[in-house]
Specification:
heterodimer, A: 398 residues, alpha/beta, D-Maltodextrin-Binding Protein, domain 2, nine-stranded mixed β-sheet, 16 helices, B: 292 residues, mainly alpha, MetI-like fold, globular
Chain lengths: 398, 292
């Protein structure tokens, strides 16, 4: 009985596991999807509008009573001390809303507002690289004033200073990063998997899952086929999608998942999978047989980025907030809880003092070599994005 | 005169809340969706109204596989539900005695837990390393490499399980209404058990059969959670496609067109079924007819 109860607890906990909550769009997302659909429905002109929102450099000014931050679930320490500290220092209360469950879904929700130059009251939103790039391209976000961001200037780790979608970080500042790589069950595989090719090994037929996040899965497979996802052509990516499709049709790949893969691998339904580093940190803590490994051909380094939407009521306070979380002491609290890759220098030393196991964890503070070997998926043109997304969705069953 | 006017207006007034509800939450969204389904464009640049009827034919030719699979799975699940549900409803209605209410409650109790959690529980029960699979492997029904989760069987099972009460309840309702004296009369007229069942019980329970099959088949065909949680891309149904088109690809016109095609097909199924089973069965008006 207690075993069953524990399993239930697991199910429920896994379902709301860190980040990408309800990624699979089950029940909860239904209501949200309906809303975002209605929102999108009204946008007649879409992006081809004549009244394009205008992005401008943020000017210094006064800080008001409150700012509004839109972020992913479970992406800040539980007691939210960081927000209280910000209020203490700057006098502005932080309205922190966990409303980003999915990049596309969030885009559907805010598009119409942003199109009118109305941020919906938001001062900061946090979205993944490619969506951050899309926001920039559509003129939905303000240009940052680097002189207002001294901590970011000083403490942002080198590898993230020049991502393909925003080469000078003119519009975006990383919140947290992470790796997509291989997670495997040590007790089930015959030897440690070294590359993505091992996921296509017939010995693991039906025990392989990959992520529904196109850039993670397609990027890793394309890299294993010899192309560099930072520069690869659409054809290279299409070849990777074809390979994934064949493996799915043959039953080699069992399925495609959001973060519910944590449940599958814990139960033993999957053995060798593509998953995220932050989850791996927690999974390994619960079950020492679960390991993360960076494939030889490189891991995918993704970042969730803070941006200031156009029309934000408190753009200057938003910059202050971005700068605030780049103080190592402040960031340490967030990193200690989140366990993804910390983008801020100086945090490692602080956390090592608090908890050596965390401070020395290669998945939270990877060394420079691992970081430089990691690839960042290149920015796709809109038509490429549509083509690849459609093809990939076709492969993953829709 | 004034009283007469008032009387004439009253029914309309009483109809207003219901009609208003239908208009606001059914007709209007439907109109929106029809409008959306005729737009052309790309997810990136947005969509503009363009009478692009081709959305419909494209949707059918691109996703015919998922359409067929949806009807196949839903049909199978409905059939299994009927086979399980009819005897159960029969027993509760005729042999339930004082346990009747308790038995009915037992049918409904699973609904106290949310749909999602129930389906997730099946994911755990059917797990590769779980008790069910290892038992079946020991007995030799399932091979060493065999599995239950993420197969067509698990998806159909999930759908059957989740919609079974929708089959049982209407069946029970119509069986329970049957006047026992009619059955007695059948036996008095030297009907054997089988004859009485075929000539009296079954025809009188037809409204329940029709309602039950429709209540099971319609939501089952549009379901996506079972295929998502208990299946793989090889089991994906039309609901999964619509969900992905809306939320992942952002291709609203195709998603809207697919929804309309699904609705149209359902309507056709209902009409054909009504023809076959007779409208009186569908509307439950067999009593009136007899009286007339």
């Amino acid at each position: 009985m207690s075993d069953l109860e524990r399993q239930f607890e697991r199910i429920i906990r896994d379902e709301i596991s860190r980040r990408r909550l309800l990624r699979r769009g089950a029940a909860g997302a239904l209501s949200v999807s309906a809303l975002s659909y209605l929102a999108a429905c009204g946008s007649e002109t879409g992006g081809s509008g004549d009244s394009k929102p205008e992005s401008k450099v943020i000017e210094k000014g006064e800080i008001g009573d409150s700012i509004y931050v839109a972020n992913w679930p479970l992406y800040i320490e539980e007691d939210r001390g960081t927000l209280k500290d910000f209020q203490k220092k700057y006098g502005a209360k932080v309205k922190y809303v966990e409303e980003v469950n999915d990049n596309t879904e969030f885009f559907g929700k805010v598009r119409q507002q942003y199109e009118r130059g109305d941020s919906g009251g938001r001062d900061i939103h946090v979205v993944t690289d490619w969506m951050a790039g899309k926001m920039i391209r559509l003129g939905y976000v303000e240009k940052l004033d680097h002189s207002a961001l001294p901590n970011v200037q000083a403490n942002l780790i080198e590898r993230l200073k020049s991502p393909p979608f925003d080469p000078k970080r003119d519009y975006s500042v990383p919140w947290q990063s992470g790796f997509a790589g291989i997670i495997y069950r040590k007790d089930k595989v015959k030897r440690e998997p070294k590359s993505i090719d091992d996921l296509f090994d017939p010995a693991y037929k039906g025990k392989v899952t990959m992520l529904t996040e196109m850039r993670d899965t397609v990027g890793l497979v394309a890299a294993s086929m010899g192309s560099d996802p930072e520069t690869a052509s659409t054809d290279d990516f299409m070849k990777a999608i074809d390979k994934i499709g064949e493996a799915s049709d043959s039953g080699q790949i069992r399925g495609f998942t959001g973060n519910e893969y944590t449940k599958d691998i814990t139960k033993g339904d999957s053995w060798v999978i593509i998953g995220w580093s932050g989850d791996a940190v927690q999974l390994e803590a619960d079950n020492p047989n679960i390991k993360f490994v960076a494939p030889e051909t490189g891991v995918h380094l993704w970042t969730d980025n803070m941006e200031v939407p156009v029309g934000a009521p408190e753009p200057y306070a938003a910059e202050k907030f971005m700068d605030f979380v780049y103080e190592p002491e402040v960031q340490a609290d967030i990193a200690e809880y989140v366990n993804y890759i910390c983008p801020v220098k100086g945090v490692k030393e602080i956390l090592t003092k608090r908890d050596p196991a965390l401070g020395e964890n290669q998945l939270i503070f990877p060394d420079d070599r691992t970081l430089s070997d990691a690839f960042i998926f290149r920015q796709l043109k809109p038509e490429e994005d549509t083509q690849l997304t459609e093809a990939f969705q076709g492969v993953i069953g829709a | 005169m004034r009283a007469g006017l008032k009387k004439a207006g009253l029914p309309y007034l009483l109809l207003f809340p219901g009609l208003g509800w239908l208009l606001l939450f059914f007709a209007l969204p439907l109109g929106f969706m029809l409008f959306e389904s005729l737009k052309a464009g790309t997810p990136d640049s947005g969509f503009l109204f363009d009478w692009s009827v081709s959305n419909y034919s494209d949707a059918v030719s691109q996703f015919d596989e998922q359409f067929m699979r949806s009807f196949e799975f839903a049909g199978l699940a409905t059939l299994i539900s009927f086979v399980i549900g009819y005897p159960l409803a029969y027993v509760i209605a005729f042999r339930g005695g004082r346990w009747r209410n308790a038995l009915l409650l037992a049918v409904i109790v699973p609904f106290f837990v949310t749909y999602l959690i129930r389906t997730l529980s099946w994911e755990t029960i059917l797990s590769d390393d779980g008790a069910v699979v290892s038992t079946l492997q020991t007995v030799g029904i399932l091979g060493e490499e065999g599995r239950l989760l993420d197969t067509t069987a698990s998806v159909v099972l999930g759908i059957t399980y989740n919609f079974l009460p929708f089959m049982i309840l209407p069946l029970y309702a119509s069986l329970e209404r049957i006047d026992p004296r009619l059955l007695e009369a059948g036996y008095d007229l030297y009907g054997r058990r089988r004859d009485v069942f075929m000539r009296v019980t079954l025809p009188l329970s037809m409204p329940g059969v029709v309602a039950g099959t429709l209540l099971t088949f319609i939501p089952a065909a549009g379901d996506f959670i079972n295929a998502e949680l208990l299946g793989t891309p090889r089991q994906s149904m039309i609901g999964n496609v619509i969900q992905s088109r809306y939320l992942e690809v952002g291709d609203y016109p195709t998603a809207a067109a697919l929804s309309f095609i699904l609705m149209g097909t359902m309507l056709a199924v209902v009409l054909v079924w009504a023809r076959v089973a007779g409208t009186e069965a569908l509307l439950g008006t067999e009593g009136e007819e007899r009286r007339a």
